[in-house]
Amino acid sequence: MVTLEGKIRVPQAQREATAEALVEHVALTRAEAGCLFFEVVPDPADPECFSVREAFLSPDAFAAHQSRVANSAWGALTKDYQRQYEVSGLDDPVSEDETWMTKALALADLASAVGEVPVGALVVLDGQMIGQGFNQPITGCDPTAHAEIVALRQAAQMQSNYRLPGAVLYVTIEPCLMCVGALVHARVARVVFGAREPKAGALISHPKVDNHSTNHRFEIVEGVLSDVCGQRMSQFFSKRR
Ligand SMILES: [Zn+2]
Predict the structure, then answer these.
(1) Phi/psi at 132 (nearest 5 deg)?
(2) For residue 177, how far is its CA from the centre of ligand 1 (angstroms)?
(3) Nearest-angstrom CA–CA distance, 72 and 239
């Protein structure tokens, strides 16, 4: 993952034009393939600056972003502004788990767009996505419509099988007790999640899988793009406050 953090100094005379151009710049950047996180906000400590935080899946995605920006209205407007940026992760290889988690993050964004807690999940079998879902209990009037359940249902329909042996479930946030139960019933082989859920997480935070009345065990991998997955949650809840 490539991250960028820093400041951009906005000349007084350009303040208004910059704020206007920024809206489009943020929307276009967040829609770019491989953009995991993008935020440009006024710096409370320095009124002449905006603070910038970016995360991209890969160096290629980061480079594609930079070349798009260079040729954009935002790039033209801000090309002479002073910037102090620190970039890291340019040499980090991208794992298959990170690539799938990026897709799960895009699903989480669909949840927050309709006012649901931003959790996204997908099911992968033999390198193919066979199910996807985002959290939707409120809009669906369905207490079971967590991202994992929605994705498992779609995968099981796709396979015409209530068991999903060999399948991998990716989810942005640690699954709850209900979802852990469903994952055991589905006989998935592996569960990969991003950030822990300290209150309701039932895999690591409050492990329940050993108490389940079956012999099925799945491999658990945590921490894939965890910062970005966690930021989605904290952003969502800070907006609601
Ligand atoms: Zn759940």
Answers:
(1) -150, 155
(2) 6
(3) 29
pTM for this one? 0.89
Task: Identify which of 122, 148, 125, 127 has the alpha carbon closest to the alpha carbon of residue 136.
Answer: 148
Residues within 5 Å of ion ligand 1 by Cβ? 146, 176, 178-179
Distance from C-alpha of 2 to C-alpha of 60, rounded to nearest angstrom: 10
Per-residue pLDDT tens over the stretch 61-119:
999 999 999 999 999 999 999 999 999 999 989 999 999 999 999 999 999 999 999 99
Q: In angstroms, what is the span from residue 146 Cα to ligand 1's centroid?
A: 5
Nearest-angstrom CA–CA distance, 38 and 116: 20
Residues 103 and 160: their CA atoms lie apart, in Å, by 24
Catalytic residues, by residue number, are 148
pLDDT, tens digit (0-9, with 9 covering 90-100), for 32-68 = 989 999 999 988 888 889 999 999 999 999 999 999 9
Cα of 176 to ligand 1 centre, how many Å?
Answer: 4
Q: Write the burial class of residue 55 (CB in 10 Å: 0-12 exposed, 13-18 middle, 19+ buried).
A: buried
How far does the centroid of ligand 1 lie from the alpha carbon of residue 149, in Å? 7
